[in-house]
């Protein structure tokens, strides 16, 4: 009877969170749940973004894919180790999806990399996401660490962290099993179970479950600013958003409005990566919080005119008009 009561309460809370305008949520599925045709269509859409000319030309962007990367580079110090880390990346996943659909006519589901399930099932290199035929390329690389197979073998990046353009750099990876083991479900459960507040959960999940996911892939995913150059970035962060939603769903009544943290990251890796020409003042009106250097629901999430800027309050609910998504 107690279990039934708990289930009823959860269903009631979930129903309460669904916006009336969000009647057709975007479906997000683990990569392993997609058919080979669905995987092909998604990968082709990603390649399409890499070839579609930039519309904003922001920070010297040449393609729509460059624009996504430039957004991340521009504010690396303000979207990592800060209160806006999870909300900004949640909206960033929506920006990415919007471009796939508007620029490349993608009509399929949005996949995520269920790293916890893959870590429990098999070695990292054996994950289907690294299939040369139906995935993002195998763990095989040449002597420079460049991919030698898969759909992104000929993709190059030349956007640098100061918005200059360097020589074309191949897509690089260096898979690391020891790092991948740090994304295990037990690590996630520890964050979910022990975190009573958003500040606690954000600090915990942005540790091993987040960082180790980047380090497990290696290559450009190791770069705190330039990592969105690898399409696995979006697979990884969509999963991270799913984990935040799992935590939120345990107490939606309280956690849809639970926010906090600092606005400016102070770690040296962030201050060194932040473009020197772009301080917080460059995003005015950016923060929008009532208290100096404290993240609130009023905090603005800047996405460079690809989509309208929104506040954290507008993305807290996965079923909001702005996000309107559902994880399966």
Automatic annotation (TrEMBL):
Secretion signal span: 1-20
PANTHER family documented for this protein: TYROSINASE FAMILY MEMBER, TYROSINASE-LIKE PROTEIN TYR-1-RELATED
Superkingdom as given in the UniProt entry: Eukaryota
Annotated ranges, domain Tyrosinase copper-binding: 80-97, 230-241
TM spans (from-to): none
Entry keyword annotation includes Oxidoreductase: no
Protein name: Amino acid transporter
Matches recorded under InterPro entries: Di-copper_centre_dom_sf, Tyrosinase/Hemocyanin, Tyrosinase_Cu-bd
Keywords for this protein: Copper, Metal-binding, Signal
Alphabetical list of Pfam families matching this protein: Tyrosinase (PF00264)
């Amino acid at each position: 009877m107690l279990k039934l009561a708990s289930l009823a309460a959860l269903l009631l809370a979930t129903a309460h969170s669904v916006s009336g305008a969000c009647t057709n949520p975007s479906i997000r599925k683990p990569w392993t749940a997609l058919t080979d045709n669905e995987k092909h269509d998604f990968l082709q859409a990603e390649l399409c973004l890499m070839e579609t000319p930039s519309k904003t030309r922001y920070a010297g962007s040449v393609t729509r894919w460059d624009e996504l990367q430039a957004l991340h580079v521009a504010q690396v110090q303000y979207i990592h180790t800060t209160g806006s880390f999870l909300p900004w990346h949640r909206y960033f996943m929506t920006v990415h999806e919007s471009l796939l659909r508007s620029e490349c006519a993608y009509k399929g589901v949005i996949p995520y990399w269920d790293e916890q399930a893959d870590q429990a099932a098999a070695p990292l290199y054996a994950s289907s996401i690294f299939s040369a035929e139906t995935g993002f390329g195998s763990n095989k690389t040449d002597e420079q660490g460049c991919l030698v197979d898969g759909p992104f073998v000929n993709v190059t990046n030349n956007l640098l962290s100061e918005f200059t353009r360097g020589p074309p750099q191949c897509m690089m990876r260096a898979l690391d099993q020891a790092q991948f083991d740090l994304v295990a479900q037990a690590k996630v459960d520890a964050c979910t179970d022990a975190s009573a507040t958003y500040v606690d959960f954000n600090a915990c999940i942005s540790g091993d479950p987040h960082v180790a996911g980047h380090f497990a892939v290696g290559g450009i995913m190791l770069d705190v600013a330039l990592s969105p150059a690898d399409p696995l970035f979006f697979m990884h962060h969509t999963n991270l958003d799913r984990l935040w939603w799992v935590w939120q769903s345990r107490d939606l009544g309280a956690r849809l409005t639970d926010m906090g943290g600092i606005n400016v990251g102070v770690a040296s890796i962030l201050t060194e990566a932040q473009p020197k020409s772009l301080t917080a003042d460059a995003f005015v009106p950016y923060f929008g919080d009532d208290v100096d250097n404290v993240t609130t629901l009023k905090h603005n999430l800047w996405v460079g005119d690809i989509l309208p800027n929104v506040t954290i309050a507008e993305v807290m609910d996965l079923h909001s008009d702005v996000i309107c998504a559902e994880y399966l």
